[in-house]
Structures are given as structure tokens and as C-alpha cells.
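re: ur question from earlier - yeah i can do the single chain one, its not a big deal. heres the input i used so u can compare w yours
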Amino acid sequence: MQFSQIRFFASSIARLEATSKPTCDLNPVCCKVVPCCMKGLINYSSQPALLCEVEPSVWSRVVKYSKYRPIPLSIENFLHHGEEATPRVSYNFLRREIPTRLAGVLLEFGFLPPILQKQTAIQAVRDEHLETFQDLLAFPNNASDADLESFSEALTNTRLRHTDTVQKTAEAVMEMKFEMIDQKLEVDQGIETAVQYFLDRLYMTKISLSMLTNQHLYVHGGNIAKPRHVGQIDPHCDVVAEIRRAYNEAARLCDQHYGTHPEINLVSSNRAEASDVPILFAYVSSHLHHMFFEVFKNSMRATVERSKEGNMAKLEVRVSKTDTDITIKISDSGGGIPRSQMNSLFKYMYTTAGRVGKAHADAVKSSSIPPMAGLGYGLPVSRLYARYFQGDLDISSVHGVGTDCFIYLRSMQQKAPEQIPVFSKSTSKTYRE
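and the output i got, formated as C-alpha cells:
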């Protein structure tokens, strides 16, 4: 046999092997390249994912959109679009942008440990995200007036569909933990890190999805915005007024649980304009309320439980505005947090009342009034709200004395773009490391 013939046969065999070799389409449900993207995960199964299979034609679109980069908008962008853009401009942007933001998260469900994937709530949340993805891509490129109206209806359904995403996922994580305890399996660092990373990205996507849908519905979809608001954004949001509103709501809740609540001492300082000028800036007031209410709720519980009759310390609140930032410091005398627990404050398996037990989780779900300490997602989600527009939330403590919570916000709207997850080839590596 000639050498050229041998080389021809060898190359033919190589091509045949290449075409018959299974390939990865980023769908762990039907992946034949086991262990595929799951390789190297600590204590993870090498079996394909447990989530229900997705139609290949649908999944190929998920993979396609995961390769696009989402476009983060600043508060300034939201205000401009709310005042100047038409419903058609908003339609064209959201029809592509929302599926782009959802696609990466949809892929990441397949990277979760199987014991979490099999939880009913996780499967439901994945399917809800997939339904929204498909619903919006079903709309045509060139929309008629009827399409614009139907699009607003679809966004209303989207808003309702994702209302309980945080609660459902938090309960699924708790059920995973309890199942591992029952099976005498240890929640190791690898699983906890992967779950923490995923939930941060899922919840941040949820925040951004709510922001996009609400802006469209309040500006173009017939929802009635509050006076002086542009969609959800108050161009002249009064920080001190929002602090007092959240404090009053937390105080009412504290009264329901304990029959009393600590008083507040609030001091503000405007170093950007003048000391006697109210601290105002463009922001989403509901985001501020979420953060302030959660912090006040934790501070009040700690203060009341530590106080003696007739000797309850006040909560001390300081607000400062400069040319670049607004800083809110909320201090309590609730005894502080042990240094050994500080690194756990923003973990989803932890609550400020301590490690979440099954009895506590059952009590939270069956309670007729909101709890003072829930399933462990209050502080981490509050930090995501702060970070969404380039702020932050941090906590320091003097154990035996009290706790200081710092909330940092950008005071300049043009320097406050969204901070949203971006899916890339390196994302799966984070779940493996």
C-alpha cells in the first residue's frame, strides 16, 4: 500500500472519530460528555443534571443569547429613557436585553449540585425563567400597536411570575441543607461556595429584571407612577424621609413581636451642597426601603432582646452626603456579633438569629406576621440592592457592645450604572474551583 493511501485512510478514520465523538452543547440535562462541566466539583455527581430536559431548539437559543453581553444602564440612562423614549424604543431594547440577562442564569442552573437541582422549588424557578425567556422572544422584530400592548401584558405576567423567586430559592436551599443533615452529609466548602455564587447572580438578575419591567410598565404600560417619579425612580429621593419610613415600619413589626421598640436618634450632614439642605438624589426609593427596613429589623431585635426593662438604648443613625457618595451609618447597642460569625453574615444559609434550623424555618413559613429573623437572605439580598447601582453594604461589630451597618450609595446618577452578572467561558470554572 502506498504511503499516500495510508495517510488518506488515517485521516478518514480521524474525521470519523471526530464526527462520532459527543460534543458539549452546554445542556447538562442531555449531555453525553460526562462529567462535562461538572468535572472537578467537590463531592458533585458526575451524572448529567437532574433538571427537566429542555427542547433542543429552545436550548440552542439560550446558548446563543448567553454569548451576548448585557447592556448595563445607569440611573441617568433610566431617567433619560423614561422621559424621552417611546414605547417602541423600549420594546426593541427589552425584547433582546431581558433574554440576554436570563440566558446566562439558565445555563448556570445546570452547574448546581444535584441535591439542590432536584429540589422542587429550584426546578420551578428554572422553568419560570425559561418561560419568560421564551415569552419575550416570541414577539416580532417589527412590532404593531397590538404587539406593543401584548408586550406590556407579557411584562406584567413576568413581574408576577418572578415575585417569589427569592423566597422559593431560599426555601430550596434550606431543604437541601436539611436533606444533607438527614443523610449525614456534610455541607462542605465547595457546595456552599457554589450555592453562594449562584444565588448572588440569580438574585441580582432578579433585581435587574424587576427594574427593567417596572420602568417599562410605569412609563409606557399604564401602571400609575408616584407623583414626581420617572417610572420607579424618584429624581429627588429624600434619604432621611426614607430612613424614617423604614424605621416606622420596622418599629410596628417590633411592637407586634416584643411589645416595644428602641427609639431613634438621626443626624444628617450635607457636605455636597450646604449643611441645612436636605439630602436628595435620584434613586429607586423601594430599594432604599428594602435595605433600611432589613437593617432596622435586625438592630431592633438585637437591642430589645439585650435591653433591661426601662433601659433600652436608642438606635443611632448618621447620614452624610459628599460630591461622590452618600453614606448611611446605623448603629445599635444590641451586643454585637462574635468575630467568628462575621464572615457568615452574608451567607444564604445563615440568619442573624443564628444558624437556621428546621423548627425555625417551619415557624417562619407558618407565622401569621412577618418574622424579625427569617431564612437568612435579608442581609445578602440587601447588599445586592446596594451594589446594583455601584453602592455597597458592610457591617462591623464590637462584640459585647453593638453593631454598625454602613450603606454606601453613589450620589451622582451618571456614575451609578447597573452591576449585573455576565456569563462567560470562565463562569463554569468558578463552580469548579
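The two ends are 51 Å apart (CA to CA). not sure if urs matches, ping me
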